[in-house]
Amino acid sequence: MTTFWSWWVILLTLTNLVLICWVLFANKKVAVSDDDDPENETTGHEYDGIQEYDNPLPKWWFQMFVITLVFGAIYFVMYPALGNWKGVLGWTSVGQWEAEMEKANVKYSETFGQYKDMKIEDIAADPKAMKIGTRLFANNCAVCHGADGGGNVGFPNLTDKDWLYGGTPAEIEMSITHGRNGAMPPWGDVIGEDGVVAVAEYVLKMSGQEHDAAKLEKGMQVYNTTCVACHGPDGTGNKMLGAPNLTDSIWLYEGTGEGIRHSVRAGRANVMPAQADKLREDKIRMLTAYVYSLSQD
Fold first, then answer.
1. What is the CB neighbour count within 10 angstroms for residue 132?
2. DSSP letter, residue 41
3. At what angle do helices 257-266 and 188-206 cross, to 10 degrees?
4. 80: helix, coil or strand?
5. pLDDT at position 40 over 80
6. Count of Cβ atoms closer than 10 Å to residue 42 Cβ
7. Dist. CA 90–CA 92, nearest whole Å
8. What are the phi and psi torsion angles at 9 (to 5°)?
9. What is the distance of C-alpha 88 from the center of its chain?
10. Cβ neighbour number for residue 189 with a 10 Å cutoff
11. Which of 176, 186, 215, 217 could form an S-S bond across to 198 if both were Cys, CB 3.0 to 4.6 Å?
């Protein structure tokens, strides 16, 4: 905040406080008692036959106002409440956050520290550790992969042994730590609708589904031209690229003819957000062990 705006905020705040004090004390007076002229006891206002008496605020109410003002004055001195004034305590929200994080790190290091030197496979076999992993998964992963890790359309199933980027502990940890960006480019404008239909029939054949045999020759030509670089000559995919295996019955999106045609025509884009900036290393290891355990049952 610039010096001008800092002083502007200070002036505006203090002016309002002074005005509040003036209004409060200017209206403080003793109750009117005039037997000769009872009209002096009212404000002169009348609502539906009800007269408003001209009495001061109750003493306890007035005192509460004064206490609030005193508290506010002390707060403005102790904390950063006036422009660029930092307060005599030097408090900042960042400083408080850092202090609380330090306390949390000390507390949780006792919980996760016992697993620090354990292999992921050993952590996955520890029932106590998996209770912690269950909670971590529910808080950070379940919104996409489901509470049971079974996934959904566009979100991988973590309970089977079919992995886009590999299912070893090291590969799972890499996925969680750094995230993944999967992109299937749209081919509709490149190969045309006939090419889309033909290659979809060829993929249906590769996965053992019913298909139109008349379109297989052209479909194979289109596949070998546009798809083989990622999915491989035999269609088993490429874990280095995150390219799915097209020969099994496991599909990230719909494995029907229409679903495959849509994927080829319009492409697909998936992002697994990196967790390195969100979770500590020990929590990522615990999550890795939990996800690894899901596919071992």
1. 20
2. G
3. 150
4. coil
5. no
6. 14
7. 7
8. -65, -45
9. 36
10. 8
11. 215
Q: pTM of the entire structure?
A: 0.68
- Spatial distance between the Cα atoms of 277 and 269, rounded to a whole number of angstroms: 23
* φ, ψ at 215 (rounded to 5°): -100, 0
**Phi, psi of 43, rounded to the nearest 5 degrees:** -80, -10
- In tens, the pLDDT along 41-74 reads 777 778 888 887 777 778 888 899 999 999 998 9
Nearest to 286 by CA among 100, 163, 126: 126
Token couple for 55: 């009495």
Give one DSSP letter per residue of 36-48, joined into a string. Answer: S-GGGGEEEEEET
The residues near 31 (Cβ < 8 Å, ≥ 6 apart) are 55, 56
Confidence of residue 256 (pLDDT cuts 50, 70, 90): very high
Q: Look up residue 156 and give its two tokens.
A: 């991988």
- Give yes or no for a contact between 237 and 229, defined as CB atoms under 8 angstroms apart: no
Only one residue has tokens 């995150």, namely 242
Q: pLDDT by residue (tens digit) across 215-253? A: 999 999 999 999 999 999 999 999 999 999 999 989 999
Mean pLDDT score, 170-199:
95
Q: Let me know: does 222 contact 199? Beta carbons within 8 Å.
A: yes
Environment class of 161 (CB within 10 Å of its CB; exposed 0-12, middle 13-18, buried 19+): exposed
Q: What is the DSSP letter of 29?
A: -
CA 276 from chain center: how many Å? Answer: 14
CB atoms near residue 212 (< 10 Å): 15
> Do 156 and 145 form a contact (C-beta atoms < 8 A)?
yes
Q: Let me know: does 235 contact 206? Beta carbons within 8 Å.
A: yes
